[in-house]
Design goal:
The protein is globular and about 45 Å long. The strands form 2 sheets. The protein has a 4-stranded mixed beta sheet. It has 203 residues and is of the alpha+beta class. The two termini are 27 Å apart. The longest helix has 17 residues. It has 6 helices and 6 strands, in the order E-E-E-E-H-H-E-H-E-H-H-H.
């Protein structure tokens, strides 16, 4: 049988499946679903994938569009990350490898959660393809102010439309220590899917 999972609560908000900015943890727990390839009939064991949303960031607390801005966790966010690790431990969902974006809020969340469930030693893989959605010129702007200025229709399209990207940001210098991270000026949800899928299939 599959391992039981804790029901999401306010204190364990990190256990919900979210979009970008998450830390993904593979668990090699026995009892995972067995799949069979269509060609040769050889069995392939799959793994449990736990998507862990980052804890509250400074950008979350301030109500701004964060995107690729590299903001830290708040004290509440750090506590949420620790609690998420405790819930993983209590549910027996102990990961074998962790995947994170390049953003410190995802990295810190993963580190704190892994330490709480005593899995701080497992392999870690990072990729820009796991970065949160790039919000273009909206990054750093107050969400309520953007909604008041541009109206509900544009606000909803920029946030929820699959194909509509926010206005592009101005080109900026990329960190020298992240040569693999491309220059991205804005993304629709469709763009996030396109750049994340190669990591999903190849990682």
């Amino acid at each position: 049988p599959r391992p039981s999972r804790p029901s999401p609560t306010r204190e364990s908000d990190l256990c919900r499946v979210e979009r970008g900015g998450a830390a993904a943890l593979h668990s090699g727990r026995p009892g995972a679903t067995a799949l069979h390839s269509g060609g040769g009939g050889h069995g392939a064991v799959t793994y449990t994938l736990v998507l862990l949303r980052h804890g509250q960031s400074v950008g979350n607390a301030e109500g701004v569009f964060t995107g690729w801005q590299d903001v830290p966790l708040t004290e509440l966010g750090r506590a949420q990350a620790v609690r998420a690790g405790e819930l993983l431990r209590d549910a027996g969902l102990l990961p074998d490898v962790v995947h994170t974006s390049f953003r410190r809020r995802a990295i810190t969340t993963a580190n704190l959660a892994l330490d709480a469930c005593d899995r701080h030693w497992i392999p870690v893989r990072r990729s820009w393809r796991l970065n949160e959605r790039h919000y273009g010129a909206l990054q750093g702007l107050d969400k309520k102010a953007v909604r008041e200025r541009y109206g509900d229709e544009a606000f909803r399209a920029w946030r929820r439309s699959y194909a509509v990207a926010p206005p592009e940001a101005r080109p900026a210098a990329r960190p020298a220590d992240r040569p693999d991270e491309p220059e991205v000026l804005s993304e629709a949800l469709r763009d996030v899917v396109e750049r994340a899928l190669p990591y999903w299939t190849d990682a």
